[in-house]
Write a structure and sequence with these properties.
Blueprint lengths: L2 E11 H5 L6 H6 L15 E5 L7 E5 L9 H7 L1 E9 L16 E3 L2 E8 L8 H4 L4 H5 L6 H14 L4 H15 L4 E7 L4 E5 L5 E5 L2 E5 L9 E3 L4 E5 L4 E5 L4
Antiparallel strand pairs: 1-4, 1-10, 2-3, 2-4, 5-6, 6-7, 7-8, 8-12, 9-10, 9-11, 12-13
Bound molecules: glutamine.
């Protein structure tokens, strides 16, 4: 399974999120602390998306371990942003290992990541996939469960769902179609973050005009709060709300 994080707040370097903390995302790629039985390391790719000023996000994604990429450490040291979404990937067996299979998935201002797996892939979700426009299926970033989840969430966003609804309803419909799936989704537009805790670990740290939502606490700061299983986080820099996910 993957590890992911989203940050909103005063501009920081990507290195402050990806590399510097004692249990940073980079460290979580080889020594995650709370994988709940879903894999051991996250070495099948990584990605980071950040918002330069008020513009649309820029991404850097690679299908290799974050520790073996010659560029990301230099890029992270000099790139500052006040909104970031990043992930390290452990591919589910049988799924493609490609740049395009690494989160974040994106469209317009949206950045998206999935930590988990759709059980019974692909058969369990064929009926759900069939509800999407054919064009969306033909242009999936990769033939993976995570890319399909992004297509389902994006379809709801386009239809006018509020982001919390888009995530909550997608989790509910996929969980119903594919029981036992792990569906920690993470979505941001650079101003708010929506994240589900559905089968995997998730924590939040809100501090002084910033918020960090992450699979695992990246340091020993006592401000980290675990998100209970089956809950949805909706966060801005001013407010963190946690509420139960609907079951259907
Ligand atoms: N099933 C996803 C994939 O293979 C996995 C994301 C994760 O949590 N490893 O891309």
């Amino acid at each position: 399974m993957c590890r992911h994080l989203a940050y909103l707040g005063p501009p920081v370097t990507l290195a402050e999120l990806l590399f510097d903390p004692v249990y940073s995302l980079a460290r979580q790629s080889w020594a995650p602390r709370d994988m709940r039985g879903g894999g051991t390391i996250n070495a099948d790719g990584f990605g980071v998306g950040w918002y330069p000023g008020d513009g649309e996000p820029v991404r850097y994604r690679r299908a290799q371990p974050i520790w073996s990429d010659p560029t990301i450490a230099d890029l992270a040291a000099v790139t500052r942003a006040g909104a970031v979404l990043a992930a390290v990937r452990s591919a589910t067996v049988g799924m493609a290992v490609l740049d395009g299979a690494a989160a974040p998935f994106a469209q317009g201002r949206w950045l998206f990541s999935h930590n988990g797996v759709i059980r019974g892939w692909p058969d369990a979700v064929v009926p759900l996939a069939a509800t999407l426009p054919v064009r969306d299926l033909l242009t999936l970033d990769a033939a993976t469960d995570s890319a399909l989840l992004w297509a389902l969430v994006r379809h709801r966003l386009r239809a006018g769902d509020d982001p919390a609804e888009a995530v909550a309803r997608t989790v509910a419909e996929v969980a119903a179609a594919a029981p036992g799936s792990r569906l920690n989704l993470l979505l941001t537009d650079g101003r708010r973050v929506v994240a589900s805790a559905a089968g995997h670990a998730l924590s939040v740290r809100a501090a002084q005009g910033s918020v960090l939502v992450a699979s695992e606490p990246h340091d020993d700061d006592p401000g980290w709060r675990p998100v209970p299983e089956g809950h949805l986080v909706v966060a801005t820099v001013n407010e963190v709300r946690v509420r139960p996910l609907p079951t259907r």
